[in-house]
């Protein structure tokens, strides 16, 4: 876990920096400087672009990670990397062409409930293409075991750019249309900067020679589009579907709640970047002992760290809502926040499960199950959103994520005879439940900021003390002892 712990720690810091900037944007700047309808439109546009990203990347970001270590000679690596650069054009060219030819029809279809959507179809298309190629260039450096700068670009760059644009909008230096165009430019720049960095790590030598296992590479790329779409749809299809069922301003309330809950997934996102290439290497080398060790350690460590974040969010959420503009409206997303937070905690419990499945020979079966679950989620959204609004979307998402994750754990156990759980997992879950019960209804009678600081300090101190004192995880105990002087 040495390289995992080292890069994961740096990645977590950068990811939380990005989420801090994004949190300021989401909770205060967007809600203050944009109307709820305008903010709902921004979320809808970005969610639709995110849903399209796996198609725009054509699965290359996962294919590159899975197969790179298979090619041992410089010539074969160059041929493989050349293919990875051009393969996404198979999807990008038709999608851009269809957007140009059928723009009016697409606009009319997406804007059935909310007319404002019509104005930003091209914005969505360009951002989707930029996100797709960004993932390709990020994967380019992942296989070189260099993820830190990529995490900065993935988590910090676009949020900082959005903050600058929001401030320019507030001071009336730009108008709303310029702000929307500026968001597009930020995502294009993000992709171009990542490209320059990736090529500085390994300059592409264009080599157009046929690969021996070309059919396997292409088959995996096509199927991984489905896998990536499954994961993305589970995250963003709810917001896209809400645009057709409820007033678009309610998407803003939902998005704020989901964004806050997404902070729980930061450690998993950070660790995943290094877990993917390591899991691929262990699978290609058939080193199943190391694979199992990585699986169990990543699950436990993610649960401990994400569990602490879960507690800090859920135990302070009522005070946090009091700080927000239009707090009564946005606090209507409390149920959404809690149930999505629980699903994010379950995601953390999986550890390197996704990395194992996507880089193994069994990904096809998992893709079929994933597609079935996405269809279930779409149906659940169609049923629950008209009945319960944003709460219905949260329930549909929770059910789909619970089913999907449970199936994946069972599949890895059946094929590899390994589970991510241990006795320390049970202890950690009990600790999280006990802290939730003890501290949720205990409020300090101070200003919300002071109250959150007091409760958070107490919870963090007690939680880390228990984790360290009873040695839930040797990795985390080692990090605590290294960075907290009083434990030395």
List the helices and strands and how they pair.
Elements: H1 2-33, H2 36-57, H3 60-67, H4 74-86, H5 89-101, H6 103-110, H7 121-142, H8 148-170, H9 176-201, H10 214-242, H11 248-262, H12 266-284, H13 288-323, H14 327-330, H15 334-349, H16 353-358, H17 363-388, H18 390-416, H19 423-439, H20 448-469, H21 474-483
Give a quick rundown of the structure:
It holds the Pfam family Polysacc_synt. With 488 residues, the protein is an all-alpha fold.
Per DSSP E runs of 2 or more residues, the count of β-strands stands at 0
State Rg: 22 Å
First-last Cα distance: 21 Å
**Strand coverage percent:** under 5%
**How much helix, percentage-wise, in residues?**
over 70%
Largest sheet: none
Task: Name the average pLDDT.
Answer: 85
Organism: Neotamlana sargassicola
Subcellular location: Cell membrane
Main location: membrane
Pfam family, one: Polysacc_synt
Please, could you describe this protein's structure?
- The structure is a single chain.
- By secondary structure, this protein is mainly alpha-helical.
- The protein has one domain (2-487).
- It contains 21 helices and no strands.
Structure keywords:
single chain; 488 residues; mainly alpha
